[in-house]
């Protein structure tokens, strides 16, 4: 009498082979999507709507001034936000309770309110307070509004950087008789900013894009930033080419910053 033979067991796929199969499937899906886009796309229509050659040239002629405005709005707001964020971070870490409460209320408020509402409020301040004028208006108005919003975000980043500095270094400075303010200025803050440089650069990228909201202030043509300039030109020509060109100009600003952030993060990882 013969004994029944056991059914052959299925060999399980190895993790390496499974990962390779998943990658191949992902590549196949991506290739299929690209082929579908190429087959279904009307290239002539896309060019006439998004990349009309005559409008590309017309837009590029006006880009330099408005690109410069975007950079000025961004840089000024970043400086205001950095100074304000540092003060708020130190208040959050203060042993004086009212300082911590005030900083906490400010941070939560301006992180919760959209930047466009803050810009609108600052634009209407001269109406509520006759005679009030920001220096270098409209640049000063934009710097103050966006700087106050970004300062709320930077404050938490800077606070985390300060807390990441080893306490032993502060205690060593105190044991040498160094005042708290001096040790904070010479020892803690330089190391904290070295740690938080990548996230601060990300904040600079976000500010670059937030500068597109300043159109709500009703600026003159000379003070337009990239988005307002591209949108007005698109509306007057009934074509999206100027907006597309303006979008590429934002990429010229943000992509180098993005690569810089990645380089700094990889450098920090190697240093660890």
From TrEMBL:
<dbReference type="InterPro" id="IPR000515">
    <property type="entry name" value="MetI-like"/>
</dbReference>
<comment type="similarity">
    <text>Belongs to the binding-protein-dependent transport system permease family.</text>
</comment>
<keyword id="KW-0029">Amino-acid transport</keyword>
<dbReference type="GO" id="GO:0022857">
    <property type="term" value="F:transmembrane transporter activity"/>
</dbReference>
<keyword id="KW-1003">Cell membrane</keyword>
<feature type="transmembrane region" description="Helical">
    <location>
        <begin position="21"/>
        <end position="39"/>
    </location>
</feature>
<dbReference type="GO" id="GO:0006865">
    <property type="term" value="P:amino acid transport"/>
</dbReference>
<keyword id="KW-0812">Transmembrane</keyword>
<dbReference type="InterPro" id="IPR043429">
    <property type="entry name" value="ArtM/GltK/GlnP/TcyL/YhdX-like"/>
</dbReference>
<feature type="domain" description="ABC transmembrane type-1">
    <location>
        <begin position="67"/>
        <end position="261"/>
    </location>
</feature>
<keyword id="KW-1133">Transmembrane helix</keyword>
<dbReference type="Pfam" id="PF00528">
    <property type="entry name" value="BPD_transp_1"/>
</dbReference>
<feature type="transmembrane region" description="Helical">
    <location>
        <begin position="112"/>
        <end position="132"/>
    </location>
</feature>
<feature type="transmembrane region" description="Helical">
    <location>
        <begin position="244"/>
        <end position="264"/>
    </location>
</feature>
<dbReference type="InterPro" id="IPR010065">
    <property type="entry name" value="AA_ABC_transptr_permease_3TM"/>
</dbReference>
<feature type="transmembrane region" description="Helical">
    <location>
        <begin position="71"/>
        <end position="91"/>
    </location>
</feature>
<keyword id="KW-0472">Membrane</keyword>
<keyword id="KW-0813">Transport</keyword>
<dbReference type="InterPro" id="IPR035906">
    <property type="entry name" value="MetI-like_sf"/>
</dbReference>
<dbReference type="GO" id="GO:0043190">
    <property type="term" value="C:ATP-binding cassette (ABC) transporter complex"/>
</dbReference>
<protein>
    <submittedName>
        <fullName>ABC transporter permease</fullName>
    </submittedName>
</protein>
């Amino acid at each position: 009498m013969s004994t029944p033979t056991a059914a052959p067991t299925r060999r399980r796929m190895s993790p390496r082979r499974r990962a390779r199969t998943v990658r191949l499937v992902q590549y196949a899906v991506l290739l299929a999507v690209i082929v579908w886009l190429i087959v279904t796309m009307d290239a002539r229509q896309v060019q006439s709507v998004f990349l009309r050659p005559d409008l590309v040239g017309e837009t590029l002629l006006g880009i330099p001034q408005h690109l410069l405005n975007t950079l000025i709005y961004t840089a000024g707001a970043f400086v205001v936000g950095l100074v304000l964020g540092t003060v708020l971070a130190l208040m959050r870490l203060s042993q004086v309770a009212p300082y911590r409460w005030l900083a906490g209320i400010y941070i939560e408020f301006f992180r919760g309110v959209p930047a466009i509402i803050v810009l609108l409020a600052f634009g209407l301040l001269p109406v509520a307070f006759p005679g009030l004028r920001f220096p270098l208006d409209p640049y000063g108005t934009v710097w103050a509004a966006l700087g106050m919003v970004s300062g709320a975000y930077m404050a938490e980043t800077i606070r985390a950087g300060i807390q990441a500095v080893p306490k032993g270094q502060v205690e060593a400075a105190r044991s040498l008789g160094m005042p708290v303010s001096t040790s904070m200025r010479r020892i803690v803050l330089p190391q904290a900013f070295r740690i938080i440089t990548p996230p601060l650069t990300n904040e600079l990228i976000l500010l670059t894009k937030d500068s597109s909201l300043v159109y709500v202030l009703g600026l003159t043509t000379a003070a337009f930033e990239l988005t307002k300039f591209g949108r007005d030109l698109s509306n007057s020509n009934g074509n999206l080419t100027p907006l597309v060109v303006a979008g590429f100009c934002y990429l010229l600003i943000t992509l180098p910053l993005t690569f810089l952030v990645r380089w700094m993060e990889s450098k920090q990882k190697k240093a660890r």
